[in-house]
Amino acid sequence: MKEVEFIWFNGKIVPWKEASVHFLTHSLHYGTAVFEGIRCYKTEKGPAIFRLEDHVERLFNSAKIAGMKNLPYDKGQIIDAAKEVVKKNNLKECYIRPLFFYGYGKMGLDTVGAKLEAGIAAWPWGAYLGEEGVKNGIRAKVSSISRHHPNSVFSQAKISGAYTNSTLAKMEALDAGYDEAIMLDTNGLVAECTGENIFIVEKGKLLTPERSNVLAGITRDSVIKIAEDQGIHVSECKIKREMLYSADECFITGTAAEITPVREIDNRLVGNGKPGQVTKKIQKLYYNVIHGRDKKFEKWLELV
Ligand SMILES: Cc1ncc(COP(=O)(O)O)c(C=O)c1O
């Protein structure tokens, strides 16, 4: 990880190395934290954070779903702090990670009386699944680990503890020599990847699993809007595992992974094993949008 100078930590800008917590931090033991992943991009007008308000909105929704009460900062303060941390570090392009967590002073599974704290870090982070993956596609494996049932850990909230499910699937895929895991829900239908939503292309149309059982990804939403603007039909529907194997194209979306083509699933080539035309078109349009080169979607960029 590339270290930078400062982190916003409980309302103050502090040196990177000083943003640390006590060993008995509640969220460290029980996963009782909520977080976001946001990206800032270089544009002609300067660094701009992509869909900042939407990310902060989701952070607060995650906190509400997780049952956090009396958050120490409001949305406006988190928005300002996210911009401040980018500016103070003089970053032109970066990943931004806000987190609300229960701090030191209370152990046990309940959170009654536990103190909520917050931090926001920003640092340069290149292609999450590698430049090669973005260009030529990645190899994915359908995981033996199911996406958690929506009534066990809620799928619309980015609750830290829930990510154990993702880490297990990701490590299984890496250990087996793949780049990413595709997770099925508890009914056996395609849900999402460990930190990305998934799309397939069938006869020029985009298909993606319904929101009911997956994180409502902001990149997913951006792709749907960009595709529809181009007259590409998008269907949010049930996707069976075998539809992955017969798809013409497949790509995954996320703030970290952006638009990454999938070239192989379970040792079967997707299409001809190369990123397809629709994927490449969406990828190009998306990169134009995030870099402020598409007037229609300029409203998604917040200058720091
Ligand atoms: C499980 C999961 N699905 C999908 C996504 C993609 O969401 P977004 O596009 O908002 O980054 C993420 C990343 O936040 C995620 O963690």
Description of the structure:
With 304 residues, this protein is of the alpha+beta class. It has 2 domains: 6-123, D-amino Acid Aminotransferase, Chain A, domain 1 (2-Layer Sandwich); 131-290, D-amino Acid Aminotransferase, subunit A, domain 2 (D-amino Acid Aminotransferase, Chain A, domain 2). The protein has helices at residues 26-30, 52-65, 75-88, 131-136, 163-175, 218-229, 241-246, 277-290, and strands at residues 6-9, 12-15, 33-35, 38-41, 48-50, 94-102, 116-123, 138-142, 180-184, 190-193, 197-202, 205-209, 234-237, 249-254, 258-265, 268-269, 301-303. The strands form 2 sheets. Strands 8, 9, 10, 11, 12, 13, 14, 15 and 16 form a 9-stranded mixed sheet that branches. Strands 1, 2, 3, 4, 5, 6, 7 and 17 form an 8-stranded antiparallel sheet that branches. It starts with 5 loop residues before the first strand and ends with a strand. The structure holds pyridoxal-5'-phosphate. Pyridoxal-5'-phosphate (PLP) binds at residues 37, 166, 192, 195-197, 215, 217-220, 253-255. Residues 37, 166, 192, 195-197, 215, 217-220, 253-255 line the site of pyridoxal-5'-phosphate.
